[in-house]
Specification:
Radius of gyration: 18 Å
Structural class: alpha/beta
Number of helices: 7
Strand order of the largest sheet: 1-2-3-6-8-9
Order of helices and strands: EEEEEHEEHEHEEEEEHEEHHH
Number of strands: 15
Distance between the termini: 43 Å
Helix content: 10-25%
Length: 288
């Protein structure tokens, strides 16, 4: 782990999501990776208690949050990136593949001209190999598509924030049946992560622990390679693709995918308000 960077992880229990606060010790500059907006689907109410707690923790440590980074446009929670932008001035960033994701879902939600599919909703679109400076700490961007077309991982010395690419070993790997998903690409993305070195900590975006167990925020490369149920112990690409396709065919839709995606492709902004001053989320009927 880098000697000049530190990481603190926060678990959002209702969505099983990990949000990571990473900061540069010399400058106190910090990034929040995969921030979560509290959302109650039954009432349509949003809240910021969870993400505000992370900002409070940063402030208590004398840190300045300068970035809200997304590993991809999530299907299982709403992002709080826009709230961070408005509350603390954080810049928003995501992989350049968001443009293709926006193109697909602009049609799904019939968004027309309200959503130009050019990624302009975000402050920065990351190409593979880009470097983001967090104070004196370089963060390298690695494209890791397969789960989605816009999936990226953020690499520090000794650590990587990997989104949904891998889960804890007992839970395996991400699904690949969303638009732009591809099991072969996911396998190759996982291989690039497992090549980072045995001691590298792979920081997860989600964990769904069994009853009585604590959620895990990171797993070493060595442990993933040895015991991940989907790619451990030398699984080859052909076997992985066959497993992933069979498994994905049986999965139900994530509970929040329909409200979440239309917010997340807008960098966390809600749809434009209607004439009555209310913003409305769309639910496509019989589309899927």
């Amino acid at each position: 782990m880098s000697e000049q960077a530190r990481i603190q992880s926060f678990y959002h229990a209702s969505t099983g999501t990990w949000t990571h606060l990473v900061w540069d010790l010399p400058s106190g500059e910090a990034a929040v990776i995969d921030p979560v907006l509290d959302f109650d689907a039954a009432s349509g109410r949003t809240g910021t208690e969870s993400v505000a707690g992370i900002v409070d923790a940063a402030a208590a440590g004398g840190l300045t949050v300068t970035w809200a980074l997304e590993t991809h446009a999530h299907a299982d929670h709403l992002t709080a990136a826009d709230w961070l932008k408005r509350a603390v001035g954080a810049q928003t960033g995501i992989g350049v593949g968001i443009c293709s994701v926006q193109t697909v879902f602009r049609d799904v939600y019939d968004l027309g001209d309200t959503l130009p599919p050019d990624g302009s909703q975000f402050d920065r679109l990351f190409e593979d190999g880009d470097t983001l400076m967090l104070g004196e700490t370089p963060i390298r961007v690695l494209h890791t598509p397969g789960h989605t077309d816009d999936s990226v991982s953020y690499l520090l010395d000794g650590a990587a924030f990997i989104g949904d690419t891998l889960f804890a070993p007992a839970f395996g790997t991400a699904r690949c049946d969303f638009p732009g998903g591809d099991a072969g690409r996911l396998f190759r993305s996982i291989e690039s992560l497992l090549a980072l070195g045995d001691e590298t900590r792979l920081y997860l975006c989600h964990d769904y622990p069994a009853a009585g167990e604590e959620p895990r925020s990171w797993v070493s490369v060595a442990e993933q390679r040895a015991s991940n149920v989907h790619v451990g112990a030398g699984t080859d690409e052909g076997a992985f693709v066959a497993m992933r396709r069979a498994r994905d065919a049986k999965l139900s839709m994530p509970a929040l995918i329909l409200p979440a995606v239309q917010v997340n492709i807008r960098a966390g902004r809600m749809p434009p308000v209607a004439a009555n001053g209310t913003s409305y989320l769309k639910i496509p009927v019989d589309r899927f």
